[in-house]
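Researcher: I'd like a candidate sequence for this fold, 427 residues long. If you have to choose between options at a position, lean toward the conservative one.
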């Protein structure tokens, strides 16, 4: 079944029921309630291994892979990153706090952010091995804080975008809020030299969830020209961003090739450095959602069904509070029934949540098996940018999260309760 290829690698249909990592999704939903998010550890591990093996095959110098905390971060995920010696990209002191409490090594904490506060910068200087500086004002703030024991990379705005699923996920074009222009980078490098700041690398990012690495090439060329002009002393670091895509819908299958993406970057960096007589840098890759999205599955229970002329609405117990991507980007999703005598697609349905917004939709006009009130549905490719962007809208409580491995389900985040909604209130 082609749709099954969207799910984690351990997914099977046995006795008309969906199983992941030898765990029954029906039993998990009954035991932990819904909405429920599950992550398949085998799929997480495979994605990391694919990146690290490709990097080792195509890049002759040292390289590393960075996990994007913004995709989804909790203590268990932060600890998992260290089992693979990944760098962990943290945005601000909140994510740094999670990393520190998960015992992530200082040298593996990398801090991003467009408008870092003084509190963010103090936390980064205390706990992080690397700070990626977004603008000149940030550099000036850093220069007033001592001691400065973190490496500094500068973030370039390359002026070249990649094709993504929505304009809101394009970050490299000329009008983007991210990074510095060519001239601003040179000014920042001069500032670092004059103020004896430890400038060690260059970074850029062009967009998230793209499938064609070709637009990376001119951006890499521009970045290496800047590196040549700056003249890094000793070992240096280079990160040509990331955000490699995944398939969210069966129309988008197969999932984009990780090896193809890594090979293209490595060859461009090696050739570019040889042409400019630059020493090869320590190359960093930021795979983004392609490390974690496919590993996650959201499970919902159907509460009611409404037929409206040519539209059949299946109403579930979750939606934009745990997955705002449809409302934000018009993202497409697919689904399978968790328990059914047949996965034959007999009707077209649209799935929406319980919240007071017309945009509270998970997907529209998808062929599914016959769905009834009380049934469970599973939405694949739910591992990235769902829970990290979730909210308490309409008093929603954030769902429980499980890590699945070899027939066992480990609770890594409990479901929020009613009292959690009042913890910040002061009377």
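Model: Candidate sequence:
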């Amino acid at each position: 079944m082609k749709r099954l290829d969207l799910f984690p690698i351990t997914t099977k249909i046995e006795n008309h029921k969906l199983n992941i990592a030898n765990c029954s999704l029906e039993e998990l939903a009954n035991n932990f309630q819904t909405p429920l998010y599950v992550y398949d550890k085998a799929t997480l591990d495979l994605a990391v291994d694919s990146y690290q093996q490709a990097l080792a095959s195509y890049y002759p110098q040292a390289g590393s892979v960075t996990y994007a905390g913004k995709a989804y971060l909790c203590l268990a995920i932060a600890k998992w990153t260290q089992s693979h010696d990944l760098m962990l990209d943290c945005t601000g002191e909140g994510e740094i706090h999670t990393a520190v409490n998960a015992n992530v090594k200082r040298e593996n904490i990398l801090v991003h952010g467009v408008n870092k506060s003084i509190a963010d910068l103090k936390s980064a200087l205390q706990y992080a091995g690397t700070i990626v500086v977004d603008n000149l004002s940030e550099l000036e703030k850093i220069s007033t804080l001592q001691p400065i024991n973190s490496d500094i990379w500068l973030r370039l705005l390359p002026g070249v975008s990649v094709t993504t699923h929505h304009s809101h996920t394009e970050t490299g074009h000329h009008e983007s809020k991210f990074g510095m222009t060519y001239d601003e980078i040179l000014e920042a490098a001069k500032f670092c030299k004059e103020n004896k700041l430890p400038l060690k690398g260059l970074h850029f990012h062009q967009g998230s969830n793209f499938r064609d690495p070709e637009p990376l090439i001119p951006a890499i060329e521009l970045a290496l020209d800047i590196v040549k002009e700056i003249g890094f002393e000793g070992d240096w670091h280079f990160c040509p961003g990331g955000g490699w895509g995944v398939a969210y819908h069966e129309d988008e299958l197969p999932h984009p090739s990780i090896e193809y993406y890594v090979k293209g970057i490595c060859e461009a960096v090696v050739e570019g450095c040889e042409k400019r007589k630059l020493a090869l840098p320590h190359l960093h890759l930021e795979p983004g959602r392609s490390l974690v999205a496919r590993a996650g599955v959201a499970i919902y229970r159907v509460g009611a069904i409404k037929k409206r002329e040519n539209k059949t609405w299946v109403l579930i117990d979750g939606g934009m509070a745990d997955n705002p991507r449809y409302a934000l980007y018009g993202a497409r999703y697919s689904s399978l029934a968790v328990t059914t005598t047949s996965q034959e697609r007999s009707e077209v349905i649209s799935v929406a949540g319980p919240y007071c917004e017309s945009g509270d939709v998970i997907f529209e006009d998808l062929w599914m098996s016959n769905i009834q009130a009380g049934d469970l549905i599973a939405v694949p490719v739910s591992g990235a940018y769902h829970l990290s962007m979730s909210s308490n809208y309409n008093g929603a409580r954030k769902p429980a999260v499980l890590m699945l491995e070899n027939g066992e389900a480990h609770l890594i985040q409990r479901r929020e309760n009613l009292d959690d909604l009042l913890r910040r209130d002061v009377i």
